[in-house]
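Lab notebook: predicted structure, single chain.

Context: the supervisor wants predicted structures on file for every construct in the current expression panel, including those that have not yet been purified. This is the next one on the list. No modifications to the sequence; it matches the entry in the shared construct table.
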Amino acid sequence: MLSLSAFRKQMEQLVQFPEKNTYLLAVSGGADSMVMAYLFNELKPSGCIFQVAHVNYKLRGEDSEQDRQLAEKFCTENGIPFHLYEVSGRDRKPDHSVQLWARELRYSFFRKIREEENLSFLVTAHHLNDQLETFIINLSKAAGINGLSGIPANGNHILRPLLPFSKEEIYTFAKEHQIGYREDLSNKKNDYLRNKIRNEVVPKLMETNDHFLNNFGKSASYLNQARHFIQQQIGEIENRMTLFNPSCKILSKEQLGRESDFVKFEILRKYGFDQEQEIHKIFNAGNGSSFYSNEYRLLVEQEHLTLIRRQEEAQTTDEEIMLMENFDFPENRMAVNLENITGIEEINKSFSWDFDAGKLRFPLRLRKSENSDEFYPAGFSGKKKVSKFFRDEKIAILARPKIWVLSDAENSVLGILPYRQDRRYMREENTVNILTIFNKSKDEV
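Prediction complete. Output recorded below exactly as produced.
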């Protein structure tokens, strides 16, 4: 049953040391949010700090105004900061999808206030009945285990501490503690899918079993645990087939291709590729084909699937970093640690190159590759175009613009970081002045 102690216990399960965090409560004036506000107010003596935000959509005339008055009065009487957003003509209420419009509007407002006030979490009053309705909606959409797991109790800086408690428990608590609230009569209409499920489907389900809602709560908890376990396993599988690169995600096409359709879907949907038909097309597409989600471009190569954020891909890659301006060897030897050079975090592999400094033309710089670049790679005979070197090393196409080239004052390539040094400038047995350029990966420190 819902009680102050049960609520406090739930908060402790959601966040460590709840009293050390700060909260923004989304309060509509309904029983759920008013009970939540009351419970948080009871936690104030233990150090709980919170504020309240309310959105007046002005969709129900005087009823909307009275909702606002109730929420604001509660805050005034209890010394709670109150934030109000009143919908106006500039918000352009649509003729259709009013619920989606309202949701996006209020969460945008809540996010703005939480950031401006530097509050740890947004808190909403979703409860067990909401969880059941969401489950049924997602079941009808073939939403998979993530959808069937329902509303998360803690995610994206949003807490939902009332999720384990039923609507009936909330009403009972409000009555026992004489908490005022407002009823939104529009919820009785079946204009929307959620209302239809709430008013027609759920009551029929409740009739089948006196413990239906409690049993559903347990099932939802099991599903959520299963979801966490599956996500952990999927993450481990993805890590095993990932060629690490901070600027883009490079997956082994062969390894991912051997996995089940479920694993393929779970990995790629994180990057916005969440249509089964599209995933099938990706694995049957020709070399060089591209697919786009809202945030990512996926490039199909012979051995790789490369994912890069579209925003990052649009950025220019003409950076240049001065490495050494002149020759300065106090003891005929000098070492440059690239870990100490700002801006080259893409280099994630250890290497150490010794140069004959007498052959180098200073200054030395780091830059991105150019079409005309060629060099004499150590361990090979003859020279090679840098572009061909990339192909031979099977470096993903989208990763190539991020790779650094070490060059001298005449723009000659001294090495491709961290892959290969140019053999013409390498240290020899009779070398007097030695320059060592090295990098140590974070994993090997």
